[in-house]
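Honest question from a wet-lab person: if I give you the sequences of every part of a complex, can you actually get the arrangement of the whole thing, not just the pieces? Trying it with mine:
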Amino acid sequence: MLKAWLQRITLADIVVWAIGLAIFIGVIWGSVVTLSIGKYSTATWINLSIAGLALGGIYALIALGYTLVYGILRMINFAHGEVFMSGPFTATFVATGLVNLGIWNRYPVLSLLIVVIVAATISTLIAVMLERIAYRPLRAAPRLVPLITAIGASFFLQYTFRGLYGSGLKSYPDMKILQGFWTIGDVRVFKTQAAAIVGALVMMLILYGIVQWTKTGKAMRAVSEDKETAALMGIDVDRVITTTFAVGGASAGVAGILFLLLFPVAHFFMGFIPGLKAFTAAVLGGIGNVPGAFLGAMVLGMIESLGPNLFLDGLGIPAVNQLKDAIAFTILVFILIVRPTGILGEQMAQAKA
Amino acid sequence: MLKPTTNWKQTVQLGLITGAVTLLISLVGMIETFGKRDIISGIISMGHILLLAPFLFSGFIAARKVETKKPTPLLATGAVIGLLGGAVLALLLALGHVINVRALFINASPMLYRMIAFGLDTPLGIISPILGGMIMSSLGAALLLLRERIRKTIINTLVWVIMIGLLRDLITTVISRWGPVAYAIKWIFAPRGLAPIGAIALIVLIGGLTYWREGRAALPKPTASPERKKQTQALTLVGTALILLLTPLILGIFFSEILDNVGLYILMGLGLNIVVGFAGLLDLGYVAFFAIGAYTIGVLTSPERGFFNLTFWEALPFAVGMAVLAGVILGLPVLKMRGDYLAIVTLGFGEIIRLLALSDWLRPYLGGSTGIQLIARPKIGPWELTTQTHLYYLILLGMGIAAFITWRLKDSRLGRAWMALREDEDVAQAMGINLVATKLLAFATGAFFGGLSGAIFASKLTATYPHSFNLLVSINALCLIIVGGMGSIPGVFVGALALMGSPDLLREFAEFRYLVYGALLVGMMLMRPEGLWPEARRRLELHEAEELSSVVSPAD
Amino acid sequence: MNKRLFVLLSLLVIASMVLAACGKAPYECTDALGCVDVAPGEPIHIAYALVISGADETLGIDSRNGIEIAIDEKGQVLGHDILLTGEDDGCSAEGGQASGTKLAADPSIVAVIGTSCSSAARVAVPLLSQAGFVIISPSNTAIDLTLAGNPNNHPGYLRTAHSDSIQGAAAAQFAWETLQVKNAATIHDGSLYAEQLAGQFVKSFQEYGGTITAQEAVDPNQTDFKSVLTSIAATGPELIYYPIFIKAGSLITRQAKEVAGLEETHLMGADGMFSPDVVEGAGEAVEGLMVSSPDFTVFGPDYAAKFVPAYETKYGTTPLSIFHAHAYDATMMVFAAIESVAVQDADGTLHIPRQALRDAMFATKDFKGLTGNLTCSATGDCADPHIAVYVYHVGEYPPEKIWP
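Yes, you can. This is the full assembly:
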């Protein structure tokens, strides 16, 4: 058996494993050196991890939109980042209006609810329109064609919102009850971070519930398995697809508000980078897989938050934080070398991709 | 009132869509910005045309769906469209009068209101978009009442006059090089847009020409003999070659600049076409090879860095070699990955390269954000290729070689292996194709052209900055090969001209460049999913797919 | 068809040649670089090359707004309208080359306001300079562009923005002498502007004898800067100097207050963060944030009283970025120079000699602009070199001047 296995190994395999090993050793070596220098305290690492989790939660909600759509249509909805931007950007104006009316800090829960609903509604609307106009007519086209319309739609939406709301920054107002932090020892937990983590978890559970236990969810899964058969079983495929986009849009809208709680500056370009990151997270976890998206997002959030300081700081590389994304992508390569279909990717995804 | 010949529901829908579209282009600021740009000096601006054209167009579209060709239902359809569409704009005006719309929509400025109201004051102004819309839509509908020859003449004339007015700056810049001819044409233009007299002259000239041509087109064409056909083919080839060689000399340096940029993208497109179009490996990080080519030239030739001080030609093989090496290094870990896993890893690779070029860590070698300057330009004998026109010929040569190589590769054993890979990896492997070698060769060949393009790019700018190598370049390259027609070599040329050339012609509207670019990508793909110049095999496949889907579609 | 067209064309050629011969102007141009002739009723052509699309667009659009306000306010120059056309410099070298090439091909252009970014300038300026234009940038701050003898310094190039070397050095002086901090950390965002400012600060601060504890860099598109701040906090600086732009700047300001160990650290930015958006974006964390900037008290009173209201009415927003006033001044300087050198015929035809115009620009002295009293140096630095330091308070804009 060992012999057969040895025979199947090619030079290419060896090189690939060598690359993987090099990344692995680099990461471990860097971490060990950094930790042994002891520049940072344990509390610092925990603080950074909490920031990473909060960021990861937001990525997870966006990644969900990618993963659901991918599961059903096998396409990268490149414009999903713009769906994420549209709702919260609009909601920022509503929030400012609420501040001016004096409602914002007097009825914080109500205000948050209003803002979340506005953001989710707009994002959903944009997502559904996107599907209707840019993707539906192309369902029979080669795989890359919808990718190009998605890229086009991404540009179009970015610059439409730039035209509508201007290219300046809009700041999202602070809420009194969400300011400040709790301390546990030397660890600081910011209320906004807690809100983001809890919000993302709750949203994630709701969405997982929808996909797993409702009739619509069942239909979604059926369509993602086999469109033709699902249609024969009496499932309205178009409607299921629209619902999928709507669910993805709504979660992106909520994610946007959580994002603004942490980073309260809205502008027309705010969706692109988180969108890209969430897409990366979805792939990292195994695209098409809902728990995978969650896991991938959390891993990515942690890598981004801890990576530069943990892996590279000890190696004496200057300005490590500039390389944050480079680290994240390198780790992505490593994980995909070990598991070519992502952390939780199914074998089936390989057959279909 | 209800006439069976008109589908009123559709008409109402179209009218509201027209309103929504004009509202959108108003609120994103296009109307106002374009309003500063006259098409016919002092008479009509591009903003007005942009405001009115949707009405004309949808009036025409709606009327085409009406089954009779009687004037009354046609005009009524048009009027309804105009009424509804205009009403949407009127609503904006009314709203803007009552509350401050600008608190939300930054472009809802008094200037915009004035343009929508055609300069009239409030009570009359609110009605004016409705009236204007109704007139335009009815005119659009009325076009159908005309004979085809006249209709085509009118449409053609309008389009050409608007285009010439729009490209005024470019045209005057070009013709100012032509000495006496410049004097002959100058009077057509005013400082902003066309002079009224010029516009009239153009309308008469273009209108007359089209009318005449349409008349001739109606006559039956003599069928060409195969010999004749061959002759014309040869003639076209020679003509194309001449045009390619002479264009920059006639049109001046700015066109050389545009053509250079298009040419660099064509080079990249030809390379990426091998990876994506032939072998079906989705690469979103193609810019990496472009960057590696550029930076290698920079490091090797720039005296500012002072490492090697090679000449361009000495450094070129290294630049291309580095790119190929990077292609193989990228190719190895992604061998097992498929589809979108591949896409994100390649995207990451592109970003890693850019971030490394920008980093403080490698600044001693790559310059950080200061980049590398004083990069050598290519020298041929005693001549240094300094201007964009000189470089154009270098790029043309590179393009020719690249096109020849890809064309020869396409039907070679390797090319067929790539295409087998694209269609089905497992079957290809079962047929005895060496997946590893085939994939790596695809990445390496693709990287080769990317590196070459980057090398010329760096020496054209004589500088290289990390900011030039962002994700957008990869996306542009991908878009142009898909829009041109995936896997098609002429498609790369057409796609690059359409996507990279046209925005450069309209640089002064750069603010709306990406907005229009995005809309254009969506529109082109919806109308021609197979691309502008599709590969023959692809076209067949797509139609097959359409037939299949038409069988399936009643079910869903 | 060809025959008819040919006849028509030749008739037109002859007719226009005759016309041209009759209308020959008596003015004779003796300028080394030639003259621009503006016929009566025709506008004077000014162009801009600024970044108006993409990620850095607010920088360029803001400057363009400044130019447009200057044109609105001026109305006419010597009885001629002003025509403004423009190009996108893309904030990149290739954008600079494309825009520079296109503008250089248009001989009717008198002056170019631009570029936005120094990387674009390095490629565009030689092209524009060769075409004989006056080039004046509202926002190039790279040191080499006005360094005599540097290959990136070209004739006809001026700027109303101040060189990074002045501001970086002033910030270091303030930190050392007034704040009396002994060690500091810097952050840049990978832009030429920030990298050079941070570099200059480090150089000057070390010359005073200070210690630089960390030189960090971030990606401006990021939003989470906790890790970079944590890593800086571990080195224990008394001051963090981050001369970057509004978005990342306000987020860093906010997050710095949240990182353990940085509560008492002084925070300082540069004029890239002199904006009301910082007050909004940083919220309560803005209290105590310092920024170095041109001294606005030497700004004419017109800035707050006239310019800003005009901007807000015209564009429906507070100024988007920082170099609008510099662009306004640049435009006004061009107008003043044209007025001083142009020769007007009796029929209103204007002749603008190019070299004389350049000389007039370089000879600008005590020009009362929004950004101070501008005097151009022989290499083209026109900015009033008074750098001041301001401190922000919650909800207040403009910030309070504390130095000198």
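Two things worth pointing out. Residues 49 and 194 of chain A are 12 Å apart (CA to CA). Chain A touches chain B through 70 residues (CB under 8 Å).
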